[in-house]
Amino acid sequence: MLYSESKERNNRFITSLKIGFPFLILTLFIFLSFRFIQNDIESFILLILLIPIYIYYILYLIYNEFKTTLIDPITKTFNRKEIIDKIETIKDKKYNSTVVLIKIENIVDINDRYGISNADKLLKTFTIRLDEFLKNYNFKDIPIGRYSGGHFLLILKGRPKEIKHLLTIFSKELRNIGINDIEIKIEFSLLDSKYDGNVNNIIKRLLYLLENREEVDTSIKPNEFEKIIYEAIKSEKFIFKYQPSQEISTKKIKILEVLTKIYSKSEGMLSRTQIQRVINHLGYETLFDKKILNLLLKELKDVKFEETFFSIKISPVSLRNSKFREYLSELFYKNSLKPENFIIEFTERRAYQEIQRFKEILNQYKKMGFKICIDNFGGDNCSLKYIRYLPIDIVKFDIIFTKNIDDELFSKVLKSHINFLRDIGVKSMVKFIDKVDTYKKIDRFKPDYIQGFLVSKPKSVKNIEEIIR
To answer: Residue 359: which residues within 8 A CB-CB, separation 6 or more?
Structure first.
């Protein structure tokens, strides 16, 4: 039995006592009333009043019991509120403890293949397996809770390094054995429970680490991140660098990718990648993009360029916002800049469901003069699906292809993708080319553009004209 189930059973037992004990008192009172107290009208009325009061009391307790259940109905682990309360309570103890977030990576695929009911049974079995595994390593009364979908939170006594070793063993065992003949893939992230005083900030950081597959970095706390973002947006502390891309056929610099950083007095420079999750969590995507573009266009207003394009990363959330499109149009008009010299660059992990609407939105940007670019093509995102439906002009390949260019399979896939894009009239770019040897291997496939330190390191606005020449 899970610790959560035993706690729920204890709570119901206490509720039963709360219901039964007053019943004994009432029975005793009735008995004594008829035995020792004179049977007058006042005593009779009192008894009549006590019975409905007791019935109301019972109904209230039963209703409250169902309303305040501690466990998730599917997995029988603690529900979200209860597991967060448990972490809040345990993390302040004197002993070392670690908060863990586990995610069943392929739960969506399991839902699609085997049905929701089978997926629910699998989630239940998974928590039992996890509980039994930890008990074998002398962990007792383990608080496990379902955070959402296939995400589970737990807190264990011990340091993160020790816990990581155990969970790695569990992950490998589960991958080899599976559950009910179904393959299970799990990922996990973990933090010392004293990482931050606010449990919600710990969870935010765990989600970030899980999504970005990063090692634990305690240099910046989540609440500090939020403060940095807020202050940066408020005071517009943005710094821009420009990463040149070379056109293979002409050997000229044709595209300058805008790299945005935020300056913090306490933490120095923070890249957009480092802060993107916090921006998303706080709902600052559109505001953030507006601020960036406002400052960027002011910086580029007096720069002379004709055949060079500036590529700007914009959140898909902003792109799908009609007011943002109006804002962008007014901003370009105000600064006397032509959208024809700019490329809107975006990437998205999961495909937007209303794909036809997204297509119409991007076509509106194209009518304004912008070109559309998808970044990290072929990586862990929906870019391949977007190519089939959206009006894309340029594709930037994921770094995974450059890193694995010596792998025959990766090399063939890259070549076929470039040929495919050429056939459908979409230009291609390979990034992170830092060595001559890498360039020679990529050049065989004839992408339209290359980018990397071999071409040039990022430059400031003062060096742009020199780069273009």
So the answer is: 389, 390, 391
**pLDDT score at 417:** 96
Tokens 């799908």 appear where? 320
What tokens appear for 430 in the block? 């390979």
The residue with greater pLDDT, 7 or 100, is 100
pLDDT at 130: 92
What is residue 459's DSSP assignment?
B
238/227 Cα distance (integer angstroms) = 15
248 and 148 co-located in one domain: no
Could you say which of 188, 212, 236 is where a domain stops?
A: 212
- Cβ–Cβ under 8 Å, residues 451 and 429: yes
The secondary structure element, H or E, covering residue 233 is helix 222-235
Q: Which of 13-22, 70-79, 219-228, 268-277 has the lowest mean pLDDT?
A: 219-228
Mean pLDDT of 101-108: 89
What's the average model confidence in pLDDT over 43-53?
A: 68
> What radius of gyration do the chain's Cα atoms show?
30
Gap between the Cα atoms of 71 and 68, Å rounded: 9
**Whether residue 440 is found in the same domain as residue 326:** yes
User: pLDDT at position 159, please?
Assistant: 87
Indicate whether 341 and 300 sit together in one domain.
Answer: yes
Q: Could you tell me if residue 72 is inside a domain?
A: no
CA distance 444 to 206: 42
Among residues 153, 185, 212, which one ends one of the domains?
Answer: 212
Residue 217 lies in a domain: no
- In-domain check, residue 168: yes
CB-side exposure of 101: number of CA atoms within 13 Å?
26
**H/E segment holding residue 427:** strand 427-430
Q: Which two tokens stand for residue 260?
A: 């945005």
Place of tokens 């706390």: 221
279 burial (CB, 10 Å; 0-12 / 13-18 / 19+) is: buried
Q: Could you give the number of structural domains in the chain?
A: 3
Q: What is the CATH number of the domain that holds 318?
A: 3.20.20.450
Cα–Cα separations (whole angstroms), residue 135 to 3, 91, 143: 11, 20, 12
- Within a 13 Å sphere around the CA of 403, how many CA atoms are in the beta-carbon half? 4
Q: What pLDDT score was predicted for residue 422?
A: 96
Q: Rounded CA gap, 292 and 238, in Å?
A: 7
Domain span at 31: 3-67
Give residue-wise pLDDT tens across range 258-273: 999 887 776 677 777 7
Angle between helix 272-282 and 199-212 (nearest 10): 130
- Does any domain span residue 378? yes
Do residues 376 and 383 touch, judged by C-beta distance below 8 A? yes
Residue 98 and residue 182 in one domain:
yes
CATH number at residue 190: 3.30.70.270
pTM score: 0.60
